[in-house]
Predict the 3D structure of the following.
Amino acid sequence: MTATATTLVIGATGTTGSRTVAQLIAGGRRVKAAGRSATPLPGAEPVRFDWYDPATYGDALGGADGVYLVPPIGDPDPATVMLPFLEQARAAGVRRAVLLSSSAIPAGGPAVGAVHQALPGLFDDWAVLRPSWFMQNFTGTHAHADSIRADGAILTAAGTGRVGFVDAEDIAAVAVRALTDDLAPNTDLVLTGPEALSHDDIAAIVAEVTGRPVVHHHLTYEAMRERLAAVIPPEFAAMLADMDRAIAGGAEDRTTDTVERLTGRPPRSFREVAERELPVRKPAAQAGPETSR
């Protein structure tokens, strides 16, 4: 795609969207940053967009020839709103679509898997990013990060299963290549970090980096599902708890070379990301020698 092409980034203030916007702009690309509040981002054109309000689609799509798609959060059936939007996008002249999915969800699978399956029939140029779990789940605004800060704890039903956790900056770097390279990937891309780690490993690294004790509490599937259902819809809670159970069974115990193959550099390790993004507890100041009065 040319340097003057305009890319619409949906979810532009989110974990991967904000990083994709920043990297596109740094590369000299024109960006429309879409979100429900049309939040201004440096160098981008803000535009209001709401998956559940088709009246926002036209302005968001105007002038765009590529789109980065972040599905609506927490919707167990995102295809209901995403497929009509993608039909409109194609009619409006969008030539390339890059979808954020998950390593745990194949084409035709639950949730965004239906959109993945439909994408090649809608666009000649496309890609589906299937990242493993984000490293930023432990450093940003995710429930794991919140529980680390509040209680020094990570709660999962993943047992000792290992995951190829991936840095959101690396996901964004692959998204930029998929959106802007002359030839689109036209495939799905499983993205991981350089090593597979258990949540016990994550807790130990966070503790070492921050100087605070952090432990991983092993929950049952049922306890995890009930905990999630207290804050999100029951169907989505069950799906996330099922993903933890799949991790416990080894489903995410893998690494890929996708980040390095597409960006030309190796993916960042969790320790690198933790050192970059987590506050370090300074050692308590030692008392100085007493002075006489």
Observations:
- The longest helix spans residues 234-248.
